[in-house]
Amino acid sequence: MAETALMAANRFRLRHQAKRGSRRAAATLWLLERTDKLLSLVLIANTLINATAIALVTAIVIHTFGYDEWLIVASTACMTFLLVVFAEISPKMIGATYPEQIALPTATILRPLMSAAKPLLWFINLFTGVVLRLFRIPMGAPLRDTRMSPEELRSLVLEGGNFIPQKHKSILLNLFDLEAISVEDVMTPRAQIEALDLSDPVDEIKRQLTTCYHNKLPVYEGEINRIAGILHVRKAMALLTQDEELTTEHFRALLTEPYFIPQDTGVFAQLQYFQENKERLGIIVDEYGEVQGLVTLDDIIEEMIGEFTTSTPGAARADSFGWTELGECLLEGTTALRDINKRLGLNFPLDGPKTLNGMLLEYLQEIPEAAISVKTAGCVIEVVQVQNQSIKVVKLIRPRD
Hints:
This protein has helices spanning about 1-10, 10-20, 25-30, 35-65, 70-95, 100-115, 120-135, 150-160, 165-180, 185, 200-210, 235-240, 250, 265-275, 295-305, 315, 335-345, 355-365, and strands spanning about 190, 195, 215-220, 225-230, 260, 280-285, 290-295, 330, 375, 380-385, 390-395. The chain has about 400 residues and is an alpha+beta fold. It has four domains: about 1-135, no CATH class; about 150-175, no CATH class; about 180-310, CBS-domain; about 320-395, Uridine Diphospho-n-acetylenolpyruvylglucosamine Reductase, domain 3. The longest helix is centred in the N-terminal third of the chain and has 31 residues, at about 35-65. It is found in: Cell membrane.
């Protein structure tokens, strides 16, 4: 019972109890760190007791009934049956069912016994070591690797049940998902970036500043690939209260250096870079230096804990789409596939295009000129509107079970 309970005990729970001051948990961990000596002690004692029990029964039968071969065989068989049921199977099943409850008290008994039996264990392990070396197994090797992979941790969180609040579980699962995505998956695409063009008239720049939805805006000259810097809107608004006539040079003087990010940078790595460089906004560029999008610290945080900003139109609509009673859903072509998979329970591939428009164009190999329907990943997608060489609106029809 002790052997099975110790091997089945949850080591993470034992470490937690030991850190909280449990001496029995500390003793159990001490034993589990010495599995070779622990198993030797338990198995030696178990074997001696079983062998002694059978020898005693045999001796009692011979002393009582004489040397009767059939009685000796019958008594040995009966004793073996009792040992298997009451000294092997039943105790081990109990130990496997209640590992911590049994391992903790028995550890306080086994630890001093192990110290007392050191000479015997040393002698037995001499021969055991020879056998293990034949199979190239080092003495004292752990029975199993207690480290857990990200996939095992994810499964542990999913199986947490009522022990982990749903919101906490969602955050933990999002953290595991971040391992497999890059900033390209969470960025604001180039076509949706709100930016200032210094080549525009000053009045147009003023109008855009007074109606913008962000605290910081990228600023470019003529073409968005020519990023001049990042403008803090609050500082720019202070200029608008002055009486002097404004020029583009006034705004240029307020610009800070842009922070560029390669498009294949991992999200976790970028979170660390934001912290190290004291930045909150970065411009994502491809291998040719062309702007692909924009990512902020808020974008990464929202991937971990869910959306919390509602200051922009896009954020206000982010959670608004879902299946209707007819099993349909209207979406813009720029909707991210990751968001669709999360909110609609679909399984669109994420290793290629990042948006619904990109996936459909890759699938069709052309820009559709009329309404067309395709079926992919078990979902029917109907193109509703095409505009400016891209698919503007689509309708999703929920796959039937």
